[in-house]
Amino acid sequence: MRLLVVGRLSGQLATAVKMAMAHGAKVQHVERADQATEQLRRGQGADLMMVDYRIDIAALIAANDAERIHVPVVACGVDADAREAADAIRAGAKEFIPLPPEADLIAAVLSAVADDERPMISADPAMKAVISLADQVARSEASILITGESGVGKEVMARHLHTGSKRADKPFISVNCAAIPDNLLESELFGHEKGAFTGAVARRIGKFEEADGGTLLLDEISEMDARLQAKLLRAIQERVIDRVGGSKPVPVNIRIIATSNRDLAKAVAEGTFREDLLYRLNVVNLRLPSLRERPGDIAVLCDHFIRKYAAANGVPPRPISVEARRALVGHRWPGNVRELENAMHRAVLLATGAEIDVDAIRLPDGRPLLEGGAAAPSPIASTYDAGVAGHAAQMADAMTRSFVGQTVAEMEKTLILDTLNHCLGNRTHAATILGISIRTLRNKLNEYADEGTPIPAPQSGVAAAYGAAG
């Protein structure tokens, strides 16, 4: 993990830095907030900033946001009282570390805020076969395309590849192509020169240069604009990039890993994705099976997430009851591992007995797990069939009546917003369920917002109340 320390390196802060280094952090240091932003702008990336509470943390975060640099902040300091610590957190810090530091606290904060611990856990033969192939090609320089449904663990696999590569001691940089508007993605990837466009107040190093020597993950590559695909193809082929507004090419040495939850061959046929770029990216394809295709992973993943979130929330880990374990294995998990992780986080918080029973396991909308449908008939599910079928028939009848009198546009709007609410505001998940691109969804939401319709923000809704993870 890369740690940027901001503040005067006094004895106590220096001790905290040494403790962080002892836990594997690579530390850089500056004294002022403007120096921190400048360092990040130059491509000297960081996973976490440790900032003296006497520095204007709100202004530092605002300056970074203006450059589209998002690095979590923890505040620290000597002799800070409760009010000053609270002020630092209100200003945007995720945590406050009192100095002199405790080794256990430093380790816990680094782990909790950076969330680097994402091990590749599997017990199912279908997934183990994919991991074996990944281990076989990890030390190569080949570009790798990771495909699979949303939530199956594509970024976790990308990190696994990087860790097993010859570039493991170099940066791993991830860019979500679906989350950044087209007009900003080029600058985010390739950087820009001062004055290249309105708001470009200084040179900004892009993700290609930041990842130099290491690995660049292009997440959801299918959402990239066709014009930018051509520039990406040149960067991969010639190992040079052009900053926006730049006058000469910049050499880069990176390995590309890309992910997609869409069929790129179909996108090529539809003319939305370049065939030559697909060939460059897809030297090796790793298709991650959905969770329902690898049921043998469900139990081991549940146990891992329970340990993780019990520790994060300061509660003792509870075993999963036999009935709950059977229900977990029988559920379809349309959101895959991500949905399972969030469900286990909620279960850790909601469980009240000696075990995590089935009542503590809730779907994103708050319903009990047993109401969510199963992958195959089971003894438990069968006892609910009649009641669920009757309820479904009533709901279907009510929904059909509610559609009468609406225009197609109104029905489409209702479907999109209801799906977005169901996905807790997650645009990528909603687009996948609706069968449209993230760009189409974004355009629809902008249209609704212009009409004055409230748009669900990410992580809104019931899951927030249950403490669901992202």
From TrEMBL:
Keywords: Activator, ATP-binding, DNA-binding, Nucleotide-binding, Phosphoprotein, Transcription, Transcription regulation, Two-component regulatory system. SMART domains: AAA. Pfam families: AAA_lid_14 (PF25601), HTH_8 (PF02954), Sigma54_activat (PF00158). InterPro entries: AAA+_ATPase, AAA_lid_NorR, CheY-like_superfamily, Homeodomain-like_sf, HTH_Fis, P-loop_NTPase, Sig_transdc_resp-reg_receiver, Sigma_54_int. CDD domains: AAA (cd00009). The modification 4-aspartylphosphate is found at D52. Residues 2-114 form the Response regulatory domain. Gene3D superfamilies: 1.10.8.60, 3.40.50.2300, Homeodomain-like, P-loop containing nucleotide triphosphate hydrolases. Residues 120-349 form the Sigma-54 factor interaction domain. PANTHER family: TRANSCRIPTIONAL REGULATORY PROTEIN, TRANSCRIPTIONAL REGULATORY PROTEIN FLGR. This is Sigma-54-dependent Fis family transcriptional regulator. It comes from Brevundimonas pondensis.
